[in-house]
Amino acid sequence: MLEIETLLENYANGPALLRNSFTGLTSTELDATPIPGKWSIRQVVCHIADFEPVNATRMKRIIAEDNPTLLGSDENHFAARLAYSQRDIEEDMVIIELTVSQMLKILKHCDIEDFQRTGVHSEAGPMTLEAMLERTINHIPHHVAFINEKRTALENQPSPGP
After folding, report:
1. Which CATH superfamily is domain 4-155 in?
2. Residue-wise DSSP of the chain
3. pTM value?
4. Using one digit for the tens of pLDDT, what is the confidence trace for 87-146?
5. Rg of the chain (C-alpha set)
6. In angstroms, rounded to a whole number, what is the distance separating the alpha carbons of residues 81 and 99?
7. Domain map (residue ranges) of the chain
8. Which of 25, 40, 51, 79 to pair with 112, CA 20 to 30 A apart?
């Protein structure tokens, strides 16, 4: 496991990594689906904006409660029902940035032993705060890889004729 300070630094860097992945794209490009069957970049950002607070709540519960149950969620239900194509990407980025900022303040005040406190995820099973933090840290880079794939696909699309 990485040192806690490194984990916190990686967590803090997530929102900037996400923002940099789509900077300079037009609204049309953000909504494009250059890879059939895959979400648009806007939808990916909305997904992260929905799940960053979910993950923060899970971490808060591990810190505050004794071995809480942490419910899983189906990302496809969120995408289908939470108006992803209508949302403002900047508003969603603010949610992500503020969630991470608040959670960092909490995590920085935890004792080292708190990172070994556990919760029980309904799908993944027992999980320490440290493991939940690692899982949360990996979420944004996981999706940035998909955003980069979409950007490449957009760049390789033929230009529309005159």
Report:
1. dinb family like domain (1.20.120.450)
2. ---HHHHHHHHHHHHHHHHHHHTT--HHHHH---STTS--HHHHHHHHHHHHHHHHHHHHHHHHSSS-EE----HHHHHHHTTGGGS-HHHHHHHHHHHHHHHHHHHHTS-GGGGG-EEEETTTEEEEHHHHHHHHHHHHHHHHHHHHHHHHHHHTSPPP--
3. 0.93
4. 999 999 999 999 999 999 999 999 999 999 999 999 999 999 999 999 999 999 999 999
5. 17
6. 22
7. 4-155
8. 51
